[in-house]
Amino acid sequence: MKQHFLKRSEGAVLLEFVFCFPILFLLFLFAVQFAYIMITWHMVHYAAYMGARSAMTVNNVQRKTRAEAVTKRILAVVSASPSDNKDAKDRADDKYIKLDGWGRLPNTKYLDRQVEVEIPMLDVDPRGLKCTVKFKMLLHVPVAGRIISFFAKKDKTEEESKWQEKLEQQAYALNPALLGKYANEWTIDEKNKLKYPYITLSSTSVISIPYATKYYPLTR
Length: 220
Prior knowledge:
By secondary structure, the protein is α+β, with helices and mostly antiparallel strands. It has helices at residues 2-7, 10-55, 63-75, 94-97, 111-114, 144-152, 158-168, 176-179, 211-214; strands at 98-99, 103-104, 115-118, 129-138, 185-189, 194-207. Helices cover 46% and strands 17% of the residues. The strands form two sheets. The protein has a four-stranded antiparallel sheet with strand order 3-4-6-5. A two-stranded antiparallel ribbon has the order 1-2. The chain is elongated, with a radius of gyration of 24 Å. Helix 2 (10-55) packs antiparallel against helix 3. The mean pLDDT is 78.
């Protein structure tokens, strides 16, 4: 009876599950967050292309306004900002978030603050018209979002830089709880102190300007 008890493995299997499940679950969260990032990055790249394409149909003064309208309309789909309602005063403009026959896109309250478009007033690029789109993507997946935002953070403090070096040298375990205070957070609501971890996705597109629109008149 004693030998049979020593050969039982139920406790070992449970112990292996306890050690492995958190790691596997963390990998699952990373996979979900990276999937969202890749989808959003493709949308940012497409928005930059469409922004440049739409901007070259108007004169230099109107280019940025035209490009912003197009890029915000595209990126409203992946805005994923906190929920808003029809009575909100600081919501995004309906021309960006309202779809004909469907209604307003949800979770687009801070769309205007997420999108930044850069177009030179003059044709300084010999290849054609250049449009750069920068998009602040909010990372909503727990744990994984904060870890990714920390490593994507450019302006790290001295304390954060030293901590990252220790992490890369595996001096400490990658503890998500410790990353909470170091995450790259964006305060989107000062009144309610609403903060979200984020990364900035950027894409630049250059389109050759046809001869017919290269010397477009300053006024129409």
